[in-house]
Each structure stands twice: as structure tokens, then as C-alpha cells.
């Protein structure tokens, strides 16, 4: 059984809607978050998360705002964020995704609403007195993962490859550590945003994102340097503490797994095992 299926069966959903800033809101379903924006001409929603979550949100929006849902935007291709898109599509929403996310969902026959609109690098959706700027920053997590800036509230929304207040997920399954660093640098190089909302964990700000980038760079450098000294995975997990980040949620549980993820990337993608300058681990 797939990991997300196991989680979905084991973890009962708890739904919540909270105002983030101005006309931008965060929707929570269990450990997952998405964002929606209410405008004078309708609503833009993001990841449906699950069919049940999408149905809950659709009903809540109808009761609270009495405005049509005009757009559904997928953050990326992963099923644990994109299932349930048909709930909004059948209600008349136009579905938007990056071309790589749309391609992956089509090729894998993911049972959710397909994209009506795709884009390559940037797309701005305007609705009423507001807009959302979508940008692709390259490979980072999954396929076709994009940033979303909601204006004029100036709220930045990124799913999975930036997480504030918590460690990156376990052994970085589906992540590209090089791309995570590069894409996060790209986010920080953009004009300032006032609020950051991730697909998991906490709401934060630009400084929180900068601190997250510091962690990614320290993690990568620590694993790389240990391997260059001939350390095995177990030795690296034992010696690399990164204690300056011990305030992050799941630090104790997931640091060894984060190290494993970077170690495996350097072995499988960067081919450290083929390099003559890298000593073979003693173990």
C-alpha cells in the first residue's frame, strides 16, 4: 500500500479555515494545508488534498461567502495534495497546473480533474480586485511544483519544498536537495512577501524561509563533507547533529532520515561511489 494511503486511513481528518491576511485564507485538513482567496468576482482555491476535504471546503465556501469558485490551482503533481479536484471542476472551476504536473497526472492516470490551463514558467490569474502569480523555479519536489503569490495581500504559498517551523519530511522521498536549495534561493530573491504559508507545518515570514534555507545548506554541506572524509551513512548520522536547528519540530525523529535522503542523493545522483577522491567507508 502506498505511504499516503496508509496515512489517510490512520489519520482522521480535522478541517479548519483561518484568515491569513486580508482576503487570503488557509484551509487545513489533518496535517495538510492549502490556500484560497476570495475576490469580488469569485474564489481561487488551491490543492483539494482529498475528495472529502474538497467537498467540505466547497460547502464551507458556499455557506460563508456565496461566491463561485472560479479557479483551482494545483501546486504540483503529488496525489496527496491533488486528489479531489473533480469536486471543484464539476462546480465550474477552471483547473490550472504547471505543464509538468499536468503531464505527470495525465500519464499516471491520476483520478482527479485534469488541467484546463497549463504554463511553462509564469502565469498570473486575475480575478476581481486580486491576482495570484504562479512561478516555476525548476526541480525541487515532485513534478511541476510552483510558488503562488497572492496579491494585493502579498501572501506567498509553497507546498512541500519549503516548510517553516519543522524539518523537511523524513528521508526526502520525492525531493531534489539541489533543487530545493536553488528554488528556495529563488523565492528569497523575489520581492518581499509579508506572510508565508506552506502545505505543511507553520505560517511564517521571509526570515523563516531564510532560516529554512540555512538548514538545507547546513544539512547538505554536513553530509557531503562527511562522505568526502570517508564516513558511512551510519557514521554521518551519528556525527552530524546540526544542533543549531534543534528547535524545529521533528528534529530528533527526522534528522537521521534527512541525512539519509541527502546521502542517497549524493550516491545515486551525484555518483559519489564512483569517485576516486572519496575514501571508501571503513564499515
TrEMBL record:
Domain of life: Bacteria
Pfam families assigned: Lactamase_B
Signal peptide: none
UniProt domain Metallo-beta-lactamase: residue ranges: 31-200
Protein name, UniProt field: MBL fold metallo-hydrolase
Species assigned in the record: Halioxenophilus aromaticivorans
Amino acid at each position: 500500500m502506498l505511504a499516503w494511503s496508509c496515512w489517510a486511513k490512520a489519520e482522521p481528518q480535522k478541517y479548519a479555515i483561518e484568515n491569513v491576511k486580508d482576503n487570503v485564507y488557509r484551509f487545513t485538513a489533518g496535517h495538510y494545508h492549502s490556500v484560497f482567496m476570495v475576490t469580488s468576482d469569485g474564489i481561487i482555491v488551491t490543492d483539494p488534498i482529498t475528495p472529502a476535504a474538497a467537498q467540505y471546503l466547497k460547502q464551507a465556501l458556499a455557506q460563508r461567502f456565496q461566491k463561485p469558485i472560479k479557479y483551482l490551482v494545483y501546486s504540483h503533481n503529488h496525489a496527496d495534495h491533488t486528489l479531489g479536484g473533480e469536486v471543484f471542476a464539476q462546480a465550474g472551476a477552471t483547473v490550472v497546473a504547471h505543464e509538468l504536473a499536468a503531464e505527470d497526472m495525465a500519464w499516471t492516470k491520476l483520478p482527479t480533474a485534469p488541467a484546463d490551463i497549463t504554463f511553462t514558467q509564469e502565469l498570473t490569474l486575475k480575478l476581481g480586485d486580486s491576482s495570484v502569480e504562479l512561478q516555476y523555479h525548476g526541480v525541487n519536489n515532485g513534478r511541476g511544483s510552483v510558488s503562488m503569490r497572492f496579491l494585493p495581500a502579498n501572501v506567498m504559498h509553497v507546498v512541500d519544498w519549503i516548510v517553516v517551523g519543522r524539518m523537511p519530511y523524513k528521508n526526502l522521498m520525492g525531493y531534489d536537495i539541489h533543487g530545493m536549495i536553488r528554488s528556495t534561493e529563488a523565492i528569497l530573491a523575489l520581492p518581499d512577501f509579508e506572510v508565508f504559508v506552506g502545505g505543511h507545518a507553520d505560517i511564517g515570514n521571509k526570515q523563516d524561509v531564510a532560516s529554512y534555507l540555512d538548514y538545507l545548506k547546513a544539512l547538505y554541506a554536513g553530509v557531503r563533507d562527511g562522505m568526502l572524509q570517508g564516513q558511512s551513512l551510519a557514521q554521518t548520522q551519528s556525527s552530524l547533529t546540526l544542533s543549531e536547528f534543534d528547535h524545529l519540530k521533528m528534529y530528533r525523529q527526522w534528522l537521521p532520515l534527512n541525512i539519509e535522503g541527502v546521502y542517497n542523493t549524493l550516491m545515486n545522483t551525484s555518483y559519489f561511489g564512483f569517485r576516486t577522491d572519496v575514501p571508501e567507508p571503513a564499515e
